[in-house]
Amino acid sequence: MIPEASYYSHPQALVETQAIGEGTRIWAFAHVLPGALIGKHCNICDHCFIEGQVRLGDNVTIKCGVYLWDGITLEDNVFVGPSVVFTNDVRPRSKNNSYSLLNTLVKQGASLGANSTILAGITVGRYALTGIGSVVTRNVPDYALVYGSPARQHGWVDEMGQKLVAAGAGRWVSVDGSRYYQEIDQGLKPE
Question: What is the pTM of this model?
Answer without folding.
Answer: 0.95
